[in-house]
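Long-time lurker, first post. I've been practising inverse folding by hand and with some scripts of my own, and I keep getting stuck on stretches where the structure tokens seem ambiguous. Below is the full token string for one chain I'm working on. Before anyone asks, I'm not after the true native sequence, just a reasonable design that respects the backbone. If someone could post their per-position residues I'd love to compare against what I wrote down in my notebook.
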């Protein structure tokens, strides 16, 4: 993993794992108060465009509370390097939660969730128990795709950096304190929030973590005139360190690793 003091220099030049629900296995969804098209799409591991197309709707504003939506195929195309990886995550049961409540939190089908854990949908589960929630890769791929389009950063770059850093796991915390999918130090998240995003980003939440990492990559791509190698060096080692010490061997390895991932994302 990168030396995060270097990442801070780049910026200057769970963890709510379930904050964004996992992919569903249901084929329909009833719109609830407060839902938006993007919320529903990410929750179900798809895109807004695919959701609208499946329901023959021209704009997301046409979605209304109580409406039954058809959910398109949740399996967005994964890059080759992610295929075959473990497609689940664990969740620690909270107070008074059952299968239905947890399934709703993750946007998953209760029957599929229960079957994965070898229990019935009405089985009693205790606070502190751990359940396996399927659909992790689909959920994270949908989130990365949504964020890339929303903030205007290259999707292949964002996915590859996220995979190299954490294999798309928000619950990863490095020995130096780097957090989440994009492995950001808290002070880096604060810098991105203040100087790029213009709003607070909570890097302990999956969506904010990906947004912060994506904004940093976009900033570096602009600064380095779309030079991917220079952008990766800045993300990993930091531009200030590069200017002072030159490029480290581990930075070169990181560049090669991420570029190889990008090349597999076709």
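-- Answer (accepted) --
I ran through it position by position. Result:
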């Amino acid at each position: 993993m990168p030396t995060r003091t270097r990442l801070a220099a780049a910026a200057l030049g769970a963890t709510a794992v379930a904050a964004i629900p996992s992919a569903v296995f249901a084929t329909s969804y009833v719109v609830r108060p407060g839902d938006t098209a993007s919320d529903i799409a990410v929750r179900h591991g798809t895109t807004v465009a695919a959701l609208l197309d499946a329901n023959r709707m021209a704009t997301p504003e046409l979605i209304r509370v109580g409406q039954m939506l058809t959910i398109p195929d949740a399996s967005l195309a994964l890059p080759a390097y992610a295929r075959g990886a473990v497609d689940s995550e664990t969740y620690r049961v909270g107070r008074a939660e059952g299968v239905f409540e947890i399934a709703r939190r993750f946007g998953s089908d209760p029957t599929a969730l229960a079957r994965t854990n070898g229990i019935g949908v009405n089985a009693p589960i205790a606070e502190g128990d751990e359940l396996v929630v399927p659909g992790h890769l689909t959920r994270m791929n949908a989130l990365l795709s949504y964020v890339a389009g929303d903030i205007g950063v290259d999707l292949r770059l964002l996915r590859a950096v996220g995979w190299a850093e954490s294999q798309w796991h928000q619950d990863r915390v490095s020995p130096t304190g780097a957090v989440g999918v994009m492995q950001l130090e808290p002070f880096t998240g604060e810098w991105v929030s203040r100087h790029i995003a213009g709003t607070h980003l909570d890097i302990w939440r999956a969506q904010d973590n990906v947004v912060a990492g994506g904004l940093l990559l976009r900033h570096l791509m602009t600064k380095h005139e779309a030079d991917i190698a220079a952008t990766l060096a800045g993300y990993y080692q930091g531009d200030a360190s590069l200017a002072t010490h030159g490029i480290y061997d581990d930075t070169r390895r990181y560049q090669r690793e991420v570029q190889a991932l990008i090349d597999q994302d076709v």
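A couple of notes from the structure itself: Residues 206-223 form the longest helix (18 residues). The radius of gyration is 19 Å. Happy to go over any region you disagree with.
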